[in-house]
Amino acid sequence: QVQLVESGGGLVQSGGSLRLSCAASTSIFTVYVMNWYRQAPGKQRELVAGITSGGSTNYADSVKGRFTISRDNAKNMVYLQMSSLKPEDTAVYYCNARLFGPSRDYWGQGTQVNVSS
């Protein structure tokens, strides 16, 4: 069982920045692919960014060049640095840990990000 706890959400003006953090409680953190998802009101949850244990990253087209995902394997932490935020980035952001596939994913409780215009 992996517990994920997100923090760092809040209200920010358009063009501002926020850094989300996710703490993972597992002794084998390094084997997991870590992802950030988000879900806006009335929309499906979408993948924002992912990072492998080796540091390879992928991003949704909508956030490329603005968001950066990183991880600290020594601290069991994953981060999402968000810059140049837009109102359409408003959503609940979820931390996700994946090892075997979506059916066995672990999820955090989510952190709300609100970007005002």
Question: In words, what does this structure look like?
Answer:
It is a single chain. With about 120 residues, the chain is an all-beta fold. The protein contains no helices and 11 strands. Strands 2, 4, 5, 6, 9, 10 and 11 form a 7-stranded mixed sheet that branches. The relative contact order is 0.32. The model has no long low-confidence stretch (mean pLDDT about 95).
SSE inventory with pairings:
Elements: E1 3-7, E2 10-13, E3 18-25, E4 33-39, E5 46-51, E6 57-59, E7 67-72, E8 77-82, E9 91-98, E10 106-107, E11 111-116
Q: In oligomeric terms, what are we looking at? A: single chain
Count of helical regions:
0
Radius of gyration from CA coordinates: 13 Å
Give the total of beta strands: 11
Spans of at least 5 consecutive residues whose pLDDT stays below 50 are: none
Q: Which H/E pattern describes the elements?
A: EEEEEEEEEEE
Strand content: over 45%
Percentage of residues in helical conformation: under 10%
In this structure, how is the largest beta sheet organized? Answer: 7 strands, mixed
Categorize the overall geometry. globular
End-to-end Cα distance: 40 Å
**Mean pLDDT figure:** 96
The chain-level structural class is mainly beta
